[in-house]
Design brief:
- The protein has about 550 residues and is of the alpha/beta class.
- The protein folds into 5 domains: about 170 residues, Rossmann fold (3-Layer(aba) Sandwich), CATH 3.40.50.620; about 90 residues, Rossmann fold (3-Layer(aba) Sandwich); about 90 residues, Glutamyl-tRNA Synthetase, domain 2 (Orthogonal Bundle), CATH 1.10.1160; about 60 residues, no CATH class; about 100 residues, Arc Repressor Mutant, subunit A (Orthogonal Bundle).
- It is about 45% helix and about 10% strand.
- The protein is built from 23 helices and 16 strands.
- The protein has a 4-stranded mixed sheet, with helices on one face.
- Helix 18 runs antiparallel to helix 23.
- The longest helix has 16 residues.
- The radius of gyration is 33 Å and the shape is elongated.
Length: about 550
Amino acid sequence: MNYEKLADMLFPDISVSPDYYENYYPERSLPDNACVTRIGPSPTGFVHLGNLYNAIIGERLAHQSNGSFFLRIEDTDNKREVPGAVNTIISSMNYFNIHFDEGATIDGDSGAYAPYRQRQRKNIYQCFAKHLVKLGLAYPCFCSEEELSEMRKKQEALKANFGYYGEWAVYRNADMQTIEEKLNNNIPYVLRFKSNGNEKNYIEITDGIRGKLKIQENYQDFVLLKSDGIPTYHFAHVIDDHLMRTTHVIRGEEWISTLPIHIQLFDTFNWKKPIYCHTPQLMKFDGSSKRKLSKRKDPELALDYYKSEGYTPDAVWVYLLTILNSNFEEWIRDNSIKNYLNFPFSLSKMSTSGALFDESKFQDISKEVISEMSGEEIYRGIAEWSKEYAKEFYEEFSKDKEYSIKMIEIGREGKKPRKDIYSWKQGKEFLSMYYGEIKEREEYPEGAKDAETVKEILKRYTEGYREEDSQEEWFEKIKVISRELGYAERIKEYKKEPEKYRGTITDVCTVIRVAMTGRRESPDIYTISRIMGKKALVRIKDASISLGE
């Protein structure tokens, strides 16, 4: 077989050798032990939590080592590509504060190793494919889908391993005449790698997360180029990771089974292999058992979910670092959450079992993150979110910025600030009590359920209310109301002799709270009333009127 001739027949337009690209994409000038990492999402329209999970690992490895982190769009599967998906990927990563040093951007590609979109690198892949053909390590396969399906049926009947290999690789040793005839008749073909592997042999690979892996070596003649000349993932990412000088490949554990293919290609080209790091799947509890997060069942898998629910990017980062490194929680106790990027992330601290996503724990962390924000920051977060997702609330909320910030800041001063907001959406729901009319109030407390008692409490409160009262003076008046209407001023007194009282001073305060805010639970009602001013009294009078004559 004249492999040189075959290569020229298959790739007549490719005139450069691999050396051309080796020189065009030289070794990076980076410090020793600097990591070069990337994410390579496919533009299928769905950007998920796993993408961000792996992006954080890559970003931390690169930036903690003064390396480089880039975005590569792996768009070789044209059938699954969704219009606008690339921009969705880029904007999602931007929203979650994933900063790339180079790669694909909305305005084009930026970096010395461009292009960063695989469909634009077709000539590069074909150059290396041509090189393999010249070496007798790749060949055209003209099998149709029907022929491959028939082959699979025969393998099943014979209980043979499925695939294209050995005696089943019908075009592996095709002569030049047969190949020329097929080409002249425009018979579609794929380009396959001629594997020298043996199904009985095993290789050992050191995974950056899992340590030593023993896997059956590849013996299949896998596809390098599809019939349209576009490479498979297997071929494309190996070429790209070599030329872009990637040191660590971060990807999901579902790719472990294909690792022998990728190792075989690196060895064939005699290239230095990157460290493959296979991350565990994201799991959640379903009843008492664990299962993989599902696109169909779990909205929290989609990154859009966190944006539409108004979770802060910092909260998502902190939570993912919590499940990525076992020592992060201990570290954060001794450091401010705001400084989470100072955490020394390590692959060795990653678990090899499924990473458990716990939404309740995530919300607790989110509360902690927001509790360290200023009133101004919280206001800005809720305003930006509501402008897009809750326009009616935004109009009210943004009308008086000073008023809104004062309401946000109630109880947030001191060493133990309130931790009752975990997302901008939930913050909007929590703060809505301070805006507009109250259309529906929660129930008044057990000790003051009848309308007449409620009206009497509210009447006495409004008659005695003075805006200039200190908190002590204000509370003294509450005590007087309680005493005169038969409510215990101290909980201990009520517990000792409950039959003597209608309830406690807490019931009186709750009546005022429900009338003023519509809710039985809220921050300090004295402070609320001071900020609301006359609006508070109007609401209380409306509450009384709503109870009837």
